[in-house]
Design brief:
142 residues, mainly beta, 4-stranded antiparallel beta sheet, 0% helix, globular
Amino acid sequence: MLLSSCQTGPFFEKNSIIPSQEWEKAFQPEFQFEVQDTTALYDVFLNIRHSPYYRYTDLFLSTSELRPDSTEIIDSVRGISLADPEGKWLGKSSGHLYERTVIWGADYRFLDTGIYTLQIRHQMDDPVLIGINDIGFKIVKK
């Protein structure tokens, strides 16, 4: 989501394991965190770990943000490149997994204090998406 700045660690970071690397459309990982500072800016990143068995070069996702006042913001589908046009995986390799961290939102400001819930879903045509190991968010306070 957002780019990193001079901070020792993330404000929030959590990943959700995709059972058996088979991401069913109905499975929508959810992440909750509390915001107490509405004056700060944050960079929001999306973490993706996948195996070489993932059969596409891109991953299309959508997210929803449930705010403390019960307002829900749905983000449209975004394509994230996991491989270059020649099929070489982008990101860091660790054994049989590839890790890609991309900015989801830069200089993001949370409008209210309280509990926020982020939810993510895949928007690929496959009812079961093979090869995604885990997915999550990292939020860095600037």
